[in-house]
Amino acid sequence: MSKDKQFRLPGYQQYSVPKGPNSHGSMILVRVTIPSSEVEPVHCGDGVEAKAVRIHLANDSLVVYNIYKPPPKRREAGELLTQATQELVLIAGDFNAHHPTINPTTTINQDGRHLVELLTDVPEITLINTGEPTHILGGTLNLTFISTELVPVAQWEVDDELTSDHFATTTTLRKIREDKWLEWSATLNAHTNLSKLWRKLRIAAGKLPRAPARPQPLQEANRLAEHFAERSSSAQLPPEIRLTYSKYNWREK
Known about the structure:
Blueprint: E1 12-17, E2 26-31, E3 36-39, E4 49-56, E5 61-68, H1 78-81, E6 88-94, H2 110-121, E7 125-127, E8 142-147, E9 154-163, E10 167-173, H3 174-185, H4 194-204, H5 217-232, H6 239-252
Parallel strand pairs: 5-6
Antiparallel strand pairs: 1-2, 3-4, 4-5, 6-8, 7-8, 9-10
């Protein structure tokens, strides 16, 4: 995306590689409610575009990579994939790599052979594509790699409604999402005021329509007033206190 046409999405922190003479442009968007910071990406080859962001979790962090390798360029993925030996990673993008291991119907190119060799040599990283095509012509160009220890909680799928010539893909890491939800929920308690609670609910639900705290605020106010009058009535006092109060009140008169 060129600098004169900046993209902005409210509620998200944007990390991008602008479109230019030597770049196609790429972007990572992170909800502003999720702590994140930019990371200097490792070298992935001359002309290969890479953007990296660290997602800060309660007790750990996850480094997310967005990769684009133009077809004529050579990719150097060794340092990229071996990051999984040191920390949790999610690496996704258009790799333009071809190998039967990645897509059974395709031929082999050098980038595909190199990736498959790395997957054998680095057991800490796993390709989680299901084999489903990610391109409208049937190719599997968009690949997603994650730390092997995250595979049991990962779900990968193609979204055939979000598409250009490529289909969008979705990767869900259930345990991480659960941890962030529990961490977020822990900030709510009996002392959280109503406006803050509704604000957090709107954040959690995306665009939750604004609604009053009560569907019938006037009726609720009257009910609370009656309840207060009933609870504060002298009829609620013990008999001995009511007798003392009556005697004192009579003397005053």
